[in-house]
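thought: fold this chain, then report.
action: predict
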Amino acid sequence: MSEQKQAGSPQSDAEAIAKAQAIYQDLLTRQQSIMLATINADGSPLASYAPFAVDSDKNFYIFISTLSQHTDNLLRTGQASLMLIADEAETPQIFARHRLTFSCRVELLQRESDDWPDAAARYEERFGDFFKLVRGFSDFKMFRLAPTEGSLVVGFGQAYTVQGDALDQLTLRRG
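observation:
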């Protein structure tokens, strides 16, 4: 009898999900910036990026200038999509880059709010002296991007829905 695992068997599914979970965590910890998609006032899309910090609930924090077009879009719509993607230089197959995307609700954190100190501490822990330098700039605002749904792609035919209260449950999407 063959020792090979059959595709779709509980053992192979469990191994695939464990591998996907590791990639998911790696993207959250190794990447320092998100690709950000917002909508302009005229309805046209805008792609940009921002350095981020993340908390244990998978809320993303970005500290961005009001001079940036995406800041106006976030303030106006209260929504965004974000993507973390593996570095091209570390990707063996460019058509199968590891990537994690989330649709998010967006909230401006006022400096006087109860949530500001924790968000600022996370940002300072991640970005150190540079954040200390820009922290007091009045044109910079802190936003919390709270994911509502997500998707993780780890290879061909390996796309997962990200769900659960802690956004830590991966379900393989089947065609």
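thought: worth noting. The chain is about 30% helix and 40% strand.
final: tokens above.
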